Amino acid sequence: xxxxxxxxxxxxxxxxxxxxxxxxxxxxxxxxxxxxxxxxxxxxxxxxxxxxxxxxxxxxxxxxxxxxxxxxxxxxxxxxxxxxxxxxxxxxxxxxxxxxxxxxxxxxxxxxxxxxxxxxxxxxxxxxxxxxxxxxxxxxxxx
Length: 143
Known about the structure:
With 143 residues, the chain is mostly beta strands. It is built from one helix and seven strands.
């Protein structure tokens, strides 16, 4: 049984607020937000022996990323720096900067010692091998 998870609750709250602004066509400017629960956008897929996560994080220095996993929860924390040139008048700025955190509930317990991550072309790929207890086991039927 999974207990209460602060980050999961904040992620759900963030999505609700985001939906309110989107439905009402209101601009939501979070240029320097300390909380942005829907960034980065991710794809998560499960295989027999592992879980794969791909996160879209273009233009980030990987030194600013912190990835952690505990049992079946993955956290991606980081900060994206944007140029702040002087004497510039922005006409449109759709990219945001600042700190972000994304917490994902994974479909199985993970072997944290074997997790691997790679970053290329703006995509962070995380390979999370399943813990032995989470892998499917074939049961032989005796007759």
